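Researcher: We're teaching a course module on how sequence relates to structure. For the next exercise, students receive a sequence and then see the predicted structure as tokens, so they can try to spot secondary structure elements on their own. Here is the exercise chain.
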Amino acid sequence: MMDKLRKLFDPTFFRFLAVGVVNTLVGYGVMFGLYNLAGLHAWGEAGYWISSAANYLVGSVVSFFLNKHFTFRNQEKGAGVVLRFVVNISVCWLLAYGLAQPAMGWLLGGLNLSQQLQGNLTMLAGSGLFVILNYFGQRFFAFRTK
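Model: And here is the predicted structure for the students to work with:
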């Protein structure tokens, strides 16, 4: 059991976390900037989805290049690796934010929070779930070794 955990949490995992810090700074800047500074919080659910999608569109470009070359050291060329990456990011984003929205609505529903604060907390929860799903998706699907 410990050997399996060591194999799973090897240096690749820690490189993934380092790249994640960069992606987080870039992506959260976009997401929370749009939601709060650009006023998308006033758009309700549409603002939530647009802000979180913009985060992952911008962050995914950074993530692809850093994770492909630095984290997973993937040498594959061609459209296949790009397509697997896009599928992984899309599925992880839809699952993470799709699950976070009703879960956080249920958890925060009785607290009488503003729509903006509840949206911010929900996006934070979605991003945490996304990180977990995305690591496994990139490691075992998008940048898998043959």
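Model: If you want an answer key for the exercise: The chain has a mean pLDDT of 91. The two ends are 24 Å apart (CA to CA).
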